[in-house]
Design a protein that fits this description.
This protein has 258 residues and is of the alpha/beta class. It has two domains: 170 residues, Rossmann fold; 70 residues, no CATH class. 27% of the residues lie in helices and 26% in strands.
Amino acid sequence: MSRTPIITIRDLGVRYDGVTALEHVSLDIYADDFVGIIGPNGGGKSSLVKAIMGIVPYSGNIVYGAELLRGKKPHIGYLPQISTFDKDFPISVREVVMSGLQAERGLWRGYGRKEQHRVENILERASLADLSNRAIGELSGGQLQRVMLCRAIISEPRLLVLDEPTNFVDNRFENELYNLLHHLSEQMAIVMVSHDIGTISSVVHSIVCVNRHVHRHDSNIITEEQLRNYDCPIQLVTHGDIPHTILGAHKECPHCHK
């Protein structure tokens, strides 16, 4: 049975100061997708999601399905790689999350009991209810990231885009985040950039490798051979008693050619 994409990308190109970040990119995102975006540093992962969000100039076409549009703008939840939120600004956790409703409520309209209830529910789901009145300047990095995720999904978007959401957070938050995303994936499409293929392969449903060009792999299992074929030279990280990284073989190493 054919599916209709909620986002259709065709011949996308992104350039910064004369340097090509992406070229000839075509990709479809569907309503039931949970996509992990992987690739080398500088390969264009963040450029791809920023183009989807419309926050960088690009060539080519990005078409949003009707279910994503509220008015003329696409309704997408977004958690950027590094939060630009001013932690010194005197605002509480509850107020930050509530601000995610401004697009649908307007800047000057008040929030009623229904909106307050939505905020309470989402803070509870993210284990933030006890911190709802705390100033954001008092939060840890993981707590702030959870707050910003709640802000991104409070308006119930049909698509959630996350750019390296586990950077600078501890393992506990990472596990909590992936558990929360698992449940959210039943309600919305998710596109998540990550450098850790070993971890996200157990979470996502499909993988997109980005290295100036894009290759979609409709499975959460991807082999070393496929990475080579996709021109996606990333490191494969494994876990064991001794932390280590598996690097690609090279001719100067005698152990690689035994």
